[in-house]
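Please produce the structure of this protein holding thymidine-5'-diphosphate.
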Amino acid sequence: MRLLVTGGAGFIGSAFVRLALREDWAARLVNLDKLTYAGNLENLTSIEKDSRYRFVQGDICDADAVGRLLEEEAPDAIVHFAAESHVDRSILGPAAFVETNVRGTFTLLEAARARGIGRFLHVSTDEVYGSIEEPLDADETWPLQASSPYSATKAGSDLLALSYFTTFKLPVIVTRASNNYGPFQFPEKLIPLMIANAMEDKPLPIYGDGMQVRDWLYVDDHCRAIQSALSKGAPGEIYNVGGSMALPNIEVVRRILDALGKPASLMTRVKDRPGHDRRYAITTAKLERATNWRALVDFGEGLRRTIDWYAAERSWVKSVRSGDYQNYYQRNYAGR
Ligand code: NAD
Ligand code: TYD
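Below is the modeled complex.
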C-alpha cells in the first residue's frame, strides 16, 4: 500500500509512521506536515533514512501543493492526522482550528475526490460527542455535542468527510479515539505536562476539582486501530477507539507522582477550563467486531513506558519547552 500521512511529525502521526515502516504496513509512505509548534522531525529520526519514506513540509490548506503531491505519489490511501489538537489553545485562539481542521480537511477531501483515492481515513476524537453522563458510554450513533472550538471543528470535519462518502462515494472511514498518551506527546496535554512538571518539581495545575473523567488509550494501540480500520473497515463507517481505562484526572496525576516518587503537595488546584467536559466514555465494540482489534497495553504498563521515556529524553523535553512554549504556558496558566 502507498500511503500519504498528514501530520506525521506530531505525536500520534509520528507513532503511526514509525510503526507503519517497522511493521511493513506500507510500501511507500509520504508524510505531509506543516511543522507547526506541535510538529517535530526529531520524532522521526529512527526512520528518516528508510528508502520507503519521504517527508514533505507543507500545509494541508494549500490545494496546489496537495494536488501536486497526490499527482507525484499516487497514494492508495490517505491517513489524515494533521490538526490543531489542543483544547486550551482552541480557547485562547480558535482561528487556526477552523483553518486547519475544517478548511484543511476540506482541501484534502477535494484533492482525494479529484484523484479517486481508494481510502481516506479521517482521524477524529471522542470529544465530538461532548460530555457523557455516567453510566452511559457513547457508541458511534451518539449525537454530536462538541463543547470546545477544538471539538466543534473536529465534528465539522467528521461530517464533511462523511458527506464525501454519501455524496461522492469517496471511500471515507472515520475513527474517533479517546485520550492518547505515550512517548513524544507535546507537554501541553495532561499526562506529559504533569510528568515534565513533576520531574522539575514544578506545580501540577489541576483544573477545577480534578474529577473530570477521561478514557486513556496508549498511542500504539490507537495506531494499530487505525491500521485495522484502514485495512478491514468498511467505507462510510465510523469506528470508536477506546482504551477501556476511564479515570478521573486527579487519579492519573497521583499515579504519576507515585511513579516518580514526588510529593502530592505538587498538585495545585487552578481555575477550571471554560466549557470543560466532565466525562468522556465510549464503546469500542464495533471496531472490535469488525476487525478483531483489541487494546493491548494496559494503563499501568503504558504509563510506566511513558514515564521512562520522558525521564530518558530530557533533552527532547527541554527543546520543545523552550521558546514559544513559555509564552503559551504563561498565557494559559498565569491568570489561573
Ligand atoms: P499533534 O498536535 O501532536 O500533531 C499535529 C500535527 O499536525 C503536527 O505535526 C503539526 O505540524 C501538523 N499540522 C498542523 N496543522 C497542519 C497543517 N495545516 N498542514 C499540515 N500539517 C499540519 O496532534 P496529535 O495529538 O498527534 O493528534 C493527531 C490527530 O489525532 C488529530 O487529528 C487529533 O484531533 C486526533 N486525536 C488526538 C487525540 C489525542 O489524545 N491527542 C485523541 C483522539 C484523536
Ligand atoms: P487534555 O490532555 O488537554 O485533553 P482533553 O482536554 O482533550 O481531554 O486534558 C485532559 C484532562 O486533564 C482534561 O479534563 C483537562 C485536564 N487538565 C488539567 O487538569 N490540567 C492541565 O494543565 C491540563 C493540560 C489538562
